[in-house]
Amino acid sequence: MPKKRIYHSKKKIGQIPGSLIYTGERSKEKLFIETFDYTKEFCVEKELQTIEESFEYKNTDSVTWINLNGLNHVDQIEALGNHYDIHPLVLEDVVNISQRPKIDDHEDYLFIVLKMLYYDDNQHIVSEQVSFILGKNYVLSFQESEGDVFDAVRDRLRHAKGRVRTLKSDYLLYVLIDAIVDHYFSVIEILGDKIEDFETAIFAGDVDGEISQKIQDLKREILKVRRAIFPLREVISRIEKNESPLINKKTITYYRDIYDHLIHVSENIDIYREMIWSLMDMYMTSISNKMNEVMKVLTIMASIFIPLTFIAGIYGMNFEYIPELQYKYAYFILWGVMIVLFIGMLFYFKRKKWL
Amino acid sequence: MPKKRIYHSKKKIGQIPGSLIYTGERSKEKLFIETFDYTKEFCVEKELQTIEESFEYKNTDSVTWINLNGLNHVDQIEALGNHYDIHPLVLEDVVNISQRPKIDDHEDYLFIVLKMLYYDDNQHIVSEQVSFILGKNYVLSFQESEGDVFDAVRDRLRHAKGRVRTLKSDYLLYVLIDAIVDHYFSVIEILGDKIEDFETAIFAGDVDGEISQKIQDLKREILKVRRAIFPLREVISRIEKNESPLINKKTITYYRDIYDHLIHVSENIDIYREMIWSLMDMYMTSISNKMNEVMKVLTIMASIFIPLTFIAGIYGMNFEYIPELQYKYAYFILWGVMIVLFIGMLFYFKRKKWL
Amino acid sequence: MPKKRIYHSKKKIGQIPGSLIYTGERSKEKLFIETFDYTKEFCVEKELQTIEESFEYKNTDSVTWINLNGLNHVDQIEALGNHYDIHPLVLEDVVNISQRPKIDDHEDYLFIVLKMLYYDDNQHIVSEQVSFILGKNYVLSFQESEGDVFDAVRDRLRHAKGRVRTLKSDYLLYVLIDAIVDHYFSVIEILGDKIEDFETAIFAGDVDGEISQKIQDLKREILKVRRAIFPLREVISRIEKNESPLINKKTITYYRDIYDHLIHVSENIDIYREMIWSLMDMYMTSISNKMNEVMKVLTIMASIFIPLTFIAGIYGMNFEYIPELQYKYAYFILWGVMIVLFIGMLFYFKRKKWL
Amino acid sequence: MPKKRIYHSKKKIGQIPGSLIYTGERSKEKLFIETFDYTKEFCVEKELQTIEESFEYKNTDSVTWINLNGLNHVDQIEALGNHYDIHPLVLEDVVNISQRPKIDDHEDYLFIVLKMLYYDDNQHIVSEQVSFILGKNYVLSFQESEGDVFDAVRDRLRHAKGRVRTLKSDYLLYVLIDAIVDHYFSVIEILGDKIEDFETAIFAGDVDGEISQKIQDLKREILKVRRAIFPLREVISRIEKNESPLINKKTITYYRDIYDHLIHVSENIDIYREMIWSLMDMYMTSISNKMNEVMKVLTIMASIFIPLTFIAGIYGMNFEYIPELQYKYAYFILWGVMIVLFIGMLFYFKRKKWL
Amino acid sequence: MPKKRIYHSKKKIGQIPGSLIYTGERSKEKLFIETFDYTKEFCVEKELQTIEESFEYKNTDSVTWINLNGLNHVDQIEALGNHYDIHPLVLEDVVNISQRPKIDDHEDYLFIVLKMLYYDDNQHIVSEQVSFILGKNYVLSFQESEGDVFDAVRDRLRHAKGRVRTLKSDYLLYVLIDAIVDHYFSVIEILGDKIEDFETAIFAGDVDGEISQKIQDLKREILKVRRAIFPLREVISRIEKNESPLINKKTITYYRDIYDHLIHVSENIDIYREMIWSLMDMYMTSISNKMNEVMKVLTIMASIFIPLTFIAGIYGMNFEYIPELQYKYAYFILWGVMIVLFIGMLFYFKRKKWL
């Protein structure tokens, strides 16, 4: 199994600060841009070829969501950034995928980075960086590659479900972040299942030598999830307490709801962490128990047959005068003695609960 | 043994925020509504068919306690909520049973969520969510299913025992929370008993391979109890320090009493946690001790009989000229030598304290 | 050995708050009341039959110490409490022996609960609750049963040793608490001795299977002592910082001295705790070392004699043509070979340091 | 392998405070001094023989970077310090290489100490102390020996890449620190590789007895890196929050960037630390697994052949009357019995999954 | 080896507060008093018989250092204390050697207690209490016994080296504390050496059964050092931040230097602590590795020779008709078979890397 490194190679060492360099591994991603422009009354959804097509929405009163997939297309990102007057350092952070979840308040807009978590087809956890820029009446979102957890949001926008169409860009941002955080629940559900599968396997003794490797892998997964989720609590908590005019008072209640979810997820992660540490203990005891069992078999076999073999050896000696050898029934008597010894031994081990 | 997952399946992923969806597993619970309406002078107890029957109590001066069991009946909860002007997000939290204990101050009323803990018939711990809404002269309580720890409270209301009938709704809330917290004591008492039973079993060597699984289960129970109780301390502490006009100054002393109880319970939980971690250590040493014992039996048997068998083997050789074979008493002398060896070995092992 | 539970059965579940119920196990204690009434000039010591006899001291200028033993006599405590105008909740705490050390400031008096620790005759640690009520010119003290650590204090009062007779009730309280805290030193001294005895026993290999049980018991003792002492630091620190007019500025220096003692004791407890955790490690290594030794004996015996037995077996075969069997000195040559092998093996194990 | 002590011998014990004594081990380093003097328009780079040649730059408006390698040349450092009016205690800290990363604000200049980390040719981590003194228009830097991570910076200065030439000395300091912090990433990358190599080796069972020594060495490396990096976070955070007029508001954003990098590196270090602790656990289980395997081979061999040998021993006895011996096919029947026993045993061990 | 208790027997239990009782074990120490009285111009050094001889220095302008060794001479200490108007509680602390490092500000003087650490001839760490009283122009120091780390200070005083003669008593105190703290470095250097010696010994497998005892002793030493040094950081930090007029602003920089040293030492101690915990792990793995090796030898010997012995046993049977026995070369063929088996086994174990 090829191992994924938990760090990203720092391609930027020695680079001039402020230069836009995509640091991820998906350098051949196709560019995918979509826009939703809506008010309570209408909602226009488009798929764009180049980012320039989205520039018309900037000065409208409607709320605009521009979603760009493919961080390798740095020129497009730069163009969009320049159009919306985004600071170069922010754009640098957008394409540098080794960011921790964080929030930067740039007066005209908020910059939020977080991690989307999901399991890929090989059941490896994938952490994809998603950046949001929240402006007065727009939300820009940047993803590494196509495919995300926002389909329910798109659906609500299209069909005006819930309140999303009636509220402003701050509520749209909430809905998007909420979709990501909701998805964390399915991730930790899978983590929980994995832990229980290990538990069941260890208790059933159904373990091969690879289990400790798998447990180590699971530990690493949990560390990865922790790193994505724990700093996000701080981010959301800062939105809550933020006096930014970009977030309406009413919407803050919803962000508090996300915060509650994150606390809930975090608690579960810490529980899993504790449980996985004790899994290792369990595994050790299961190994020791097995060895105990092996030793018992050996001890029982040896303790029973070595003395019997000794007795047989005695009467295999060639001394000229061994009186027992002449008795006619000596052989059968000896068998009797041996059987008694054998049964006595069995009783002894039975009483010791080794059998 | 079927394992209970420690998370609840998040049925709400992708749902519109604010929608009332019961997230628990008891979706077929019968609706059970009871009301207590009392002043110092009288106390009227009723069992209702529909929530509408309780609406008459809203504008009276008497204190009203409406207790609703069956969170799956979201329509009834919504009706009650609307009648008392409760925010939809609060109602959403009432029916979403994966809440952490928390308190929300909504000016006109306080919303408090906590967990009722008890052991079911299979000795599995059950954590049932109970929500309280405390208003000026009413307390609304919501439980997942019928059956609770409030019987003593009902009795006191009916027979005007203690001060509950003479005081306001804030004291009623105290009495109800106190009943739940009092019950925590019996839960941790059972936890304590379980830990001691394990200890006794491990020390007596009376353990089967399942003990590590049981210890893991116990760890999980303790984590569950921790999760229910620890955030509650924060909740009660916020009531204490709260300037809410709904809580009288005099009643705060009583809440401080609950707080003391919770600290007491928390300390015990942490002690149990530490003890259960060291239980695992004990178990490991007991396994090692057992293996030691097994090894000693093997070593003693082998060390005694292998050399003797060797000697017997010597005189079983067919060399034409082995002088000893001709001596008449050689066989008996050899027996003597062997018995001396045997006893010598026993002494050796005795001195090594292996016997 | 009968095990003591670390929790007290919560007899109060479902009881009305404010009711005086003794929760301890010593329900048959004899009532014992003594009073010391003193000024610089005189000191009157009395032993009373009923609490009413003490009521005369209330309105005098002299300092009065009323010491009541036997918390099961709730009526006497209630009478005393009413006479001195003590709040019912305070009296409830006096007789509820599962209190954590705490201080409550009730303006007219301070209420302080702490734990007296000592070892009983079976070398089990006993934690007895002592409550103090400090008023303007009186100290009330409540103990579960007769017998305490205050004899030196009584002596000083009687013979006007030190400054106790020249100062007020706040200094008396200091002297009493100091006596209790001083006694903690002998408790941790015994704990220290026990730990060292275990160390010595483990290092000497002089351990039986019960040692891990005893270590677990010791852990529990340390947890018990911790629970008694750690919250007391907070209590004393609050007296120090307290602006209560009941404590003179000058006396505060003395309380700071107690605080220093408590820090000292706490540090020792934490050190013991760390040491006892590593004791378990030591025990594990000692078990492993023993097993190693057992295995070596087995391996040496088996490795030496199994090959030799094989050789003997060879010449015990009945093939018609085994040339060696005919040589006259073959038997002696074989003995030589075997002895060489034997010595070679010994050398080999010697070089491996297994002998 | 020669072990490096993690402390430096404190040559200074008993010395008069304020005396300049180099405490490192590279006491024969050649002196190397270089200067960069630049404005937006020009950049003059020089290599000096003595520090006096650099004195001309003090009172110019251009930014001057004086980089001195060879802390053993205390006289040169003292001369430079006196010329720039640096406090003797600061100079003492410059040459005392056992400093923790720290920042001291001396109004006219900031003094910053940090550690440059790199792997030497033997793959041992080297921690070299670098001190910076930031003045109004100069940066003094002091290194233990020639060779550093500043080549990219020099290049940017020479060719006016990026913004370094257009900004002041505070930006130059940022660029220099950034170069050092960037290099931390390659250090932790190597650490991560080492950990994974150990994991792979342990999982592959490809471990020799030295692995635990190597793990211990790795732990020490991580501790060393931790000690260099963790206090630096505090240093940078203090620059950020600093109101020092030497740091422009605009440059602070860049320092925040360094801070983010340091948090990132710190998190990785803590993850590595956790992983290396669990590596030890893995190693233990792998040892136990191996022992289990060894025991199984022994048990299978012994359990199969000891009973068979016993049977052979039976018919090697010399009793005069053993009926079986006379049957013609007895020998072959016995072989059959033995083979059946042998196969039965194999099945038994197969079913137990020992084979 | 006699074990030193880590607590001191509390001789003071039940004593009247404020009484001067020496609590240490060196009750037969000789009294040794020396005085240094100096200004920039002169320095008078004397050795006194009784403390009264030092009283002449009190009202001079010169700085006086009175150093008293032998805390058992409580009368001399009391006399000195009374002469300099020191509070009785301070004197009590001077002779009670179980103090934690602390500082008390008594307006006219500062009282500082700390611990001098050194290794005695048996390589046991010794912690000796040193108390300082810093007045306007005097420093009083109290040590348990003669012999200290102040020789370099005395030398500097005598020969007016450094700045000590030109500055006031606060600088003298700094120099004295600095001498003690400097000595901590050699203590932790020895600790570091010990840990490395253990590591080397464990890795070389050169361990006897006593190593775990020695590691436990080392843990205790580290705890002792921790207890002496960690609270001292707080003490020095309070001097730094202290607004006491007894400490000049200029001198505070020097105290900050001590603080830096203490942080440095503390970090090393924590590293040692972590390393010693993992030493125990290493030791466990080394034991397990050894057992593995023992088991392999046993398994190889048994697996090879038990089957061979079985074969020999077969042809030692006395059946009348065993065809092989009659073939002339059967014996040699059997030898061939056995040798093939033997070599096959060796190959098998070789391939399993057990050889």
TrEMBL record, chains A, B, C, D, E:
Keywords, sorted A to Z: Cell membrane, Ion transport, Magnesium, Membrane, Transmembrane, Transmembrane helix, Transport
Cross-referenced Pfam families: CorA
Tell me the compartments it is located in.
Answer: Cell membrane; Membrane
UniProt membrane topology term: Multi-pass membrane protein
* Superkingdom classification of source: Bacteria
Is Cell membrane among the key words of this record?
yes
From the record, give the transmembrane residue ranges. 297-317, 329-349
Q: Which CDD domains is this protein grouped with?
A: TmCorA-like_1
Task: Tell me, in one coarse class, where this protein mainly resides.
Answer: membrane
GO cellular component assignments = plasma membrane
Q: Name one GO molecular function term.
A: cobalt ion transmembrane transporter activity
Q: Does the keyword rRNA processing apply?
A: no
Q: Which family does it belong to?
A: Belongs to the CorA metal ion transporter (MIT) (TC 1.A.35) family.
The function of this protein is:
Mediates influx of magnesium ions.
Name of the protein described by the UniProt record: Magnesium transport protein CorA
| Organism of this sequence | Hwangdonia lutea
